[in-house]
Amino acid sequence: MKLYDLELSGNCYKVRLFLNLLQQPFEKVTVNVLKGEHKSPEYLSINPKGQIPTLADGECIISDSQAILVYLAEKFEAESWYPKDAQTRAEIQFWLSTAANEAGRGPADARLVKLFGAGLDYNQARQKTDALLNLLEQHLQGHDWLVGDAITIADIAVFPYVGLAGDAEISLEPYPAVRAWLNRITTQPNFIGMPGLHPAEQTV
Ligand SMILES: N[C@@H](CCC(=O)N[C@@H](CS)C(=O)NCC(=O)O)C(=O)O
């Protein structure tokens, strides 16, 4: 399997993390977004949106980090990560959509502004982040995991940009249940981190 990847991308990290948790080997192909490689004709032929990550598993090409998590869980029959019953799958989908929408337009966009100087509206991203963190805090005060009583791909999907909040100059101090959840994820066997991810320290 080849992962079209960039080390500093939280969406790519999401996939690297899950592949490591599953202990599945893969080859990284770096796509230098800063040099515009994600918009080259070669890359657009495998990902017409011109975004990273993309997973190539033989002839099977999957883009979007949430879609890749679903594919990997199914391919490797990792049922505990993506249980088959209808209600659990729907609850997981709720959080996969939250990762793509609220986490993308909240902490991910805020991080793009602070880390890479992106011309996005930081205050708007900040407001969306606060709403996401309040949603997570309320949910996690009564639960260890986002869905059910064990870690699933829902946790992996939402984790990166919340864990990278420090890069976006957003404190997780008011969110103790969120911090406890982040730390629960970091203690999973075969967990790997990425630059900027320091969930245990995000108390100030
Ligand atoms: N929903 C997509 C979002 C992917 C995404 O926004 N990737 C960023 C890097 S983290 C990217 O490729 N940005 C360049 C662009 O959109 O032009 C996913 O989860 O994979």
TrEMBL record:
Location of the GST C-terminal domain: 85-204
CDD domains (UniProt xref): GST_C_7, GST_N_4
Alphabetical list of InterPro entries matching this protein: Glutathione-S-Trfase_C-like, Glutathione-S-Trfase_C_sf, Glutathione_S-Trfase, Glutathione_S-Trfase_N, GST_C, Thioredoxin-like_sf
Domain of life: Bacteria
SUPFAM superfamilies hit by this protein: GST C-terminal domain-like, Thioredoxin-like
Domain GST N-terminal: 1-80
Protein name, per record: Glutathione S-transferase family protein
Originating organism: Acanthopleuribacter pedis
